[in-house]
Design brief:
By secondary structure, the protein is α+β, with helices and mostly antiparallel strands. The protein has helices at about 5-10, 45-50, 55-65, and strands at about 25-30, 30-40, 70-80. The chain is built from 3 helices and 3 strands. This is RNA-binding protein KhpA.
Length: about 80
């Protein structure tokens, strides 16, 4: 299977000012191979882009990777801020 985590990091690194803050977490569910991308809060605009065009392009690249089995790849992009529960 292709290393999708490395692909995400390779695509996102040139876009951000704080490449050390890039984190990609993986979780497998019954239907998806979920990748959660977290970047510094100051870089979130660069990763999402105007009207979400950059995020859409990143997702297109990641979703084009062939994975074995019936599961699909899903990419979620979050900023580095903590959520209040």
């Amino acid at each position: 299977m292709a290393d999708i985590k490395a692909l995400i990091i390779t695509v996102v690194t040139p876009l951000v000012q704080y490449p050390d803050d890039i984190q990609v977490n993986f979780k497998e569910t019954t239907r998806y191979l979920e990748y959660n991308l977290t970047v510094n809060a100051e870089d979130i605009g660069r990763v999402i882009g105007r009207q979400g065009r950059v995020a859409s392009a990143i997702r297109t690249i990641v979703y084009s990777v062939r994975v074995s089995g019936p599961k699909r790849v899903r990419l979620t992009i979050e900023d580095g801020q903590q959520k209040n529960s």
